[in-house]
Amino acid sequence: MLLGIYDRCTPALASEVSLFAAMLGSLDEAQAVLADRGVELDTKTVRTIAYRYAARARLEQQVDHAAFADSVAGRRVVISSDGGRMRLRETKRGPKTTKGRRRYTGAWREPKVLIVYVVDAEGKREASFAPFLDATLKGPDAVFALLRTYLQRLAITQADQVLFIADGAPWIWKRVPLLVQTLGLAAEQVHELLDFYHAVQHLGQVAALRPDWSAKARARWRTQQRRLLLQGQVEQVIAAVQAICRGRNSKAIRTQRNYFIKNQSRMAYAQLMAMKLPIGSGAIESAVRRVINLRLKGPSLFWCRASAEAILLLRSYYKAGRWNMLKRMATSHLALLET
Q1: Which of 177, 222, 266, 277 has the fewest CB atoms within 10 Å distance of its CB?
Q2: In whole angstroms, what is the distance from residue 237 CA to residue 256 CA?
Q3: Burial 180-209, CB ≥16 within 10 A → b, else e
Q4: What is the pLDDT of residues 65-106, one digit of tens each?
Q5: Mind listing the pLDDT tens digit for each residue in 205-216?
Q6: Is residue 296 helix, strand or coil?
Q7: Whole-prediction pTM
Q8: ∠111-117-118 over CA atoms, to 5°?
Q9: What is the pLDDT of residue 339?
Q10: 23 pLDDT exceeds 70?
C-alpha cells in the first residue's frame, strides 16, 4: 500500500488501464489496446481496475483540502457549468425475464459538468494553465460542492476578476450568489453573464413566433436586437419583444420576454467585451461534448450509476490535460488508507 500497489496492481499498470478506459470509446477497445501492448486482461478486470482507480481519486479529493500548486493570484478566472444527457440503467419493477435477468429501463439523466479556466489580457484562454474539469450525476448541489472545493483550493479570493458564465438554467444562477458568499469573494471581483449565443437563440425563437413575418423580416429583426444586446441596450430589446407581444402566440412571446427580464442583469455584454472577457460559454459546451457525448452517450448505451460516475471523473481529468494530477490523487496515501 505504501508503494502504491493496490488490488495487486502497480500504480503504472492501474494508471495505464484507467487511461485507456477513459480515452477510448469502450472498455472492449481498452482491453484490445492493452492486449496489443502485451497486457493480457479481460474486460471485466479492466473495468474493475479503472473504476476502483476512479473511486480512490474521488476519495482523496474529498479528504484532501490542501491548496493546489496552480495559482490564480492576479489572474482572470472564468467559471461555467452545464448539463449533458445520457441514459442510466435503472432496475425495473416486476418479474425477471425468462433467462432470470432483471428488467431495466434506460432513463435519460443529466450529468452536470463544471469547468474552471484562466484567460489572458486579450480574453484568450491561457495555454499555460490547464483547466479544471469535473462532472457528476449527483445533481446541482453536488456539482456546486465540487466547484466550491476546486475554487477554495485554488485560493480564488486572490484572483483579479472572476466571471461566472452559463446559459439561463435556473439551477445554476440561483446557486451562484451563495457560492460567492461562501468563498468570500468581493462584489467588485465577480461578474455574472448569460451566454450571449443562448440569448441570440431566444431572439430567434421570438421571431419564429411571428408567422405573419417573412423569413427576411425575421432575420432582420433578430439582427437588430442582436446588435442592441452587444451595445448593452437590453431595455430596448425587452421593449421590442413587448411591442410584438400580440396575436395567437402572445403567451409564448411573453415567456420569452420574461426570460430577458429575468436575466437582464446578466447581459452586460458591452462592459465585458470592453474588459476583454469572454461573452460565450463555448468552453463548457465543448467540455460536455468531449466528456459526455463522445464517451457516455450513444445508441444502446445504458450505464449503471457507479460506472458512469467513474468514467465521468477519469475522462474529465484526461480531457483537461490533468491526468498526472489524477494519478497523484489515486495513489495518495490518504486515499489508500481511507479505503
Answers
A1: 177
A2: 11
A3: beebebeeebbbbbbbbebbbebbeebbeb
A4: 888 989 899 999 999 999 999 999 988 888 888 888 888 888
A5: 999 999 889 999
A6: coil
A7: 0.92
A8: 165
A9: 52
A10: yes
112-119 and 132-136 beta bridge pairing: antiparallel
Residue 104: what pLDDT? 85
| Residue recorded with cell 448505451 | 301
Q: Which of 289, 267, 270 is nearest to 113 (CA)?
A: 289
**Hey, is 76 helix, strand or coil?**
strand
Residues paired with 164 in a beta bridge: 79, 192
Cβ neighbors of 101 (< 8 A, separation 6 or more) are none
What does the alpha-carbon distance between residue 202 and residue 177 come to, in Å, rounded to a whole number?
A: 25
Tell me which residue of 149, 157, 153 sits closest to 74, measured CA to CA.
157
- 76-194+279-299: CATH class: alpha beta
Q: Check if the beta carbon of residue 108 is closer than 8 Å to that of residue 86.
A: yes
The phi and psi torsions of 85 (rounded to 5 degrees) equal -145, 135
Amino acid present at 230:
L
Give the integer Cα–Cα distance in Å for 65 and 7.
26
Q: What is the pLDDT of residues 156-204, one digit of tens each?
A: 999 999 999 999 999 999 999 999 999 999 999 999 999 999 999 999 9
Largest Cα–Cα distance in the chain? Answer: 73
Q: Are 77 and 159 in contact (CB under 8 A)?
A: yes
Question: Residue 167 and residue 199: Cα distance in Å, rounded?
Answer: 8
198: cell is 443562448
Domain ranges (residues) in the chain: 76-194+279-299, 197-266
Only one residue has cell 479481460, namely: 42
Q: How far apart are CA 157 and CA 151, in angstroms?
A: 9
pLDDT band of 120, cuts 50, 70, 90: very high
Residue 264 DSSP SS3:
helix
pLDDT over 70, % of the chain = 98
